[in-house]
Amino acid sequence: MTRFLSVKGKALPLPLFLPVFELDNPFVDIDMLGQDFGFGAIMTNAFFLYKHRERKTEVLDKGIHEFLGFDGIVVTDSGAFQQFSGPLYLKNKTIVAFQRDIGVDVISPLDLITPPGDKRTVASKKMLATIKRIGQVLPLSGESTLIGVGQGGRFLDLRGQAMEMLAELGVSYAALGALVPFFNRNHDMEFVGRVIRQARAILPKSVPIHLYGGGDPLELPFYMALGCDIFDSSSFVHYALGGWYMTPYGALKREEMDLKNPPYFCPCPQCSQGIEKVYQDKVSLARHNLWAIVHTMKKAGGLLKEGLLDEHLMHIAARHMELFPSSRLAGSWQALELDREA
Ligand SMILES: [Zn+2]
User: Fold this and answer.
1) pLDDT digits (tens, 9 = 90+) for 85-123
2) What's the distance, CA 171 to chain centroid?
3) Interval 120-129 mean pLDDT
4) Residue range(s) defining the domain that contains residue 252
5) Residue 164, domain member (yes or no)
């Protein structure tokens, strides 16, 4: 059965990828995302709009959809990454009210980022404070959907507690915060996978789970299989800037790519001119990377619905390990499979 993200009269089938849109980023323009790629939902940063005086006035006046020129689902983050000192409770309320007032569909509270290095007492405090903030602003979110963000750092039980508390609060959308540093470790999905599986087991099936910052087409199908529904990332741009060409089996730099026998024949408009050309132009490369994500979401999403995703994961892992023998992908997936059997 297809599940949907439904907000303010708009509904999109899950799983869903939200490309990150940044106003001053020359690599992404809104028509490209909406029209060329057909994205029905995007993610953007509300804090950058809030702190920019002219833009703030304009977006309050026009509303976010007209301001951006995008009528799909707009998800915003609150600038938690940019937060500094100050009366944070007030700031949490202020930034949530701002997102509501500009008509954002899915809004974020000002959560407390918990890096993997945080010790248990700190991680626990931040997780509880984040939950408290969510409780404080739930009644302020109006018709918008408020994201229940789970923190907890590197502690699985704290992350589980966060999900239980979010379920009690009755959130209708949940996100897993501050996991990016974990999946940047040589494709080791073990911890992130456990966090996703645990969240899926605790939250009602109707609550979609969003993995903040998830955007490597290699890993997305695995996270989907574990029960994650929504991803957002600007990885396609960052990878392009670093010279990486994304494939479903891992990203390759030009010198790693066998052009005579590429691991993946990409059907995107960029690659029709030849991969060599795509490598030479960062804008082309970013677009190709975004297509690689789109194709991955479509394929894995379809297989998930048909109950055939597991076999496909075996294929991805095998092909990836041929290309990157020292990767932790297959090993970490095996560990997650063993968890399931235990
Ligand atoms: Zn391509």
Assistant:
1) 455 566 899 999 999 999 999 999 999 999 999 999 999
2) 18
3) 96
4) 110-341
5) yes
- Asked, for residue 37, whether it belongs to a domain, the answer is no
Q: Which residue has the higher pLDDT, 89 or 218?
A: 218
Check residue 204 and report its DSSP letter: -
On whether residue 186 sits in a domain, the answer given is yes
| CATH code at position 128 | 3.20.20.105
- Residue pair 47/82 in contact (Cβ under 8 Å)? The answer is yes
- Which residues crowd ion ligand 1, with CB under 5 Å? 266, 268, 270-271, 288, 291
pTM over 0.70: yes
Q: Which residues, other chains included, contact 20 with Cβ-Cβ below 8 Å and sequence gap of 6+?
A: 28, 42, 43, 44, 232, 233, 234
DSSP 8-state assignment for residue 153: T
Check residue 274 and give its pLDDT: 94
Query: How far, in Å, is the centroid of ligand 1 from the Cα of 271?
Result: 4
Q: How far is the CA of 286 from the centre of ligand 1 (A)?
A: 9
Residue 105 within a domain = no
Q: Which conformational region is residue 299 in: left (phi greater than 0), alpha (psi within -120 to 50 degrees), or beta?
A: alpha
Å from CA of 213 to ligand 1 middle = 22
Q: How far apart are CA 280 and CA 302, in angstroms?
A: 33
Q: How far is the CA of 44 from the centre of ligand 1 (A)?
A: 24
Q: Does the structure show a pLDDT above 70 at 82?
A: no
pLDDT (tens digit per residue) in 55-80: 999 999 999 999 999 999 999 998 76
Q: What's the domain count of the chain?
A: 1
Q: Is 233 helix (H, G, I), strand (E, B) or coil?
A: strand
